[in-house]
Amino acid sequence: MDTTSNFINHDFQIVILTNQLSDSILLEIHRFIQNNYFNKKKIELVCVNNDNNIESFKQNISSIDLFNIKYVLENKYSIDLYFKSWLLNNDHENEHLQLYLPPIEKTEYIDHSWHMIRCDLQEILIDPHHQVNHDRFFIYTEPSRISTLTENSSSSLSLAIYQLKALNFIKQTNYCISMIFGMPLLVISSSCHKYDIESIENNEIAFDTLTEYLRQNELMLICRLNDCSSSLLIMNSSFSGHFVLSVASERSLILRSIASSELLLPLPNLTRQIIKHEQKQNDENLFKSLSNMNIEDEEYNPLYYEARKSKITLNTNLI
Fold first, then answer.
1. What are the residues facing 2 on neighbouring strands?
2. Confidence (pTM)
3. Which Gene Ontology BP annotations are present (predicted)?
4. N or C end of the chain: smaller count of CB under 10 Å?
């Protein structure tokens, strides 16, 4: 049982994590409920596995509306996600995002005729930069400065050579785009001049073979950053990020960082709605405006979208 108090708001939080709702725990719960010194709005009962005692508890407890009952499966993934949910901040005074959609008669600047949708944002992944050895989750193409232990204690710029260990394939349709993060990198067959022509040609054949195999079978390759350290202790304690290779063209691949278990955060409970409707309703005016918006015939082309001279300028008087 974990209890925390906030003396300013007079809030009292109780989190009970149990795999068996015993009589002693029930007695403790009743004691807290009957104690008028506590604010009883924040009592969370977390049950590992679906215990049959929960149903009898619901029937016998008089203040069941004061409880937030959660069920957690008895495995490390489910329990891990529950504790990670404590990292999420759902208590905020203002919305995070205001999305403005143009009316049927579009104006150059955002004004009160535009449709505005307020949204809250939630992180899907833990920022890798907050992790120990965060550089192990990325691949850098710029030289970094390293120090050499010499008499002059000099330092020089060095470009790291990364080793990616192939793990398995996944179908192109079997991955979630929200699990991808970081800067995408184009991967082509190396033409490094320190290797002879025969080695370069053989390497190019191997690269083209991999690219063609991925393209024909509509696959992507999951890889893990290999730790070149000779120390077994360091290898076991350090992080190594995961990456996905996908086809960019007939002669190139795209390399992107992909989330691992340590970075994953739980998703919000989307079934909880502040306003519930018996039947889903649509905003007819907004629906007409959306139907009037232009649909590009071609794929997204960044050349048509310049960050430095956007015509969509937010009028700060609307906020």
1. 15
2. 0.62
3. male meiosis chromosome separation; meiosis I; spermatogenesis
4. C
